[in-house]
Write a structure and sequence with these properties.
The protein has 256 residues and is of the alpha/beta class. 44% of the residues lie in helices and 13% in strands. The chain has 7 helices and 9 strands; from the N terminus they run E-E-H-E-H-E-E-E-E-E-H-H-H-E-H-H. Strand 5 and strand 6 form a beta hairpin.
Length: 256
Amino acid sequence: MNTDVWGGTVGARFGRDARGPIAGLLIAALVSLACAGGGLAEPEAERPGADPSAASPGPSTTRADSTTSVAEFEQDVADAQAVAERYWAAQFKKSGQRFQPIRRITPYQRAGEVSCGGQPLPRNNAVYCSQGDFIAYDVAWSVAAFRQVGDAFVFYLLGHEYAHAIQVRLGINYRFTIQQELQADCMAGAFLGDSVRSRALTLAEGDLDEFREGVAAVGDDPDQPWFAEGAHGTAEQRTDMFFRGYEGSLKECDLG
């Protein structure tokens, strides 16, 4: 995987590795746990002076696509955050608004190590905490998913959770969880598709398939009631919304 600077815009190449089939049990944890987006207290720390213009990776860095190290995963998370913040800063600027990045991204290793609104976060989880304005993820689970699914999935995962932060900034609050989640999938797709079209991101061969397989892997069981608390949508619904955004940009995401 290569990261470059394209005329001041962060560029990242997603590499598709031969990692075998997606394990449903591993990724299924994301279905019910991934997005505790509402009202869930942040870890104690001062708010960093975040600045999207300073968020980009350094000069060109090259890693072999076949590597699956924790260091590569961490770099992919940092790259995805940088590209997302540049993208959303540009979108907010177009509408005459000021964009405020999230406060931080926090990895954790043990259940309860990080809490959100007084609720300890469990293992095998990735969330956006609206009350604390941060993203947190179980690093062991996330690295395992990265190794199994591929590095493009890291960009989707970060893009989806960042979309929840954008929903909060725009005051979007649907009645049903599934509406919030499918819109976040669409917004993640728009962020990635627009970033590819602007050459902020460059896809390697197979990465679209990796997106498709990864998004499908986090779909709800077909028997899950759509109105259930925590519902995210079936594999078909999530894939459809992601690629609507990917191909048609934010106009497909019902942002009003």
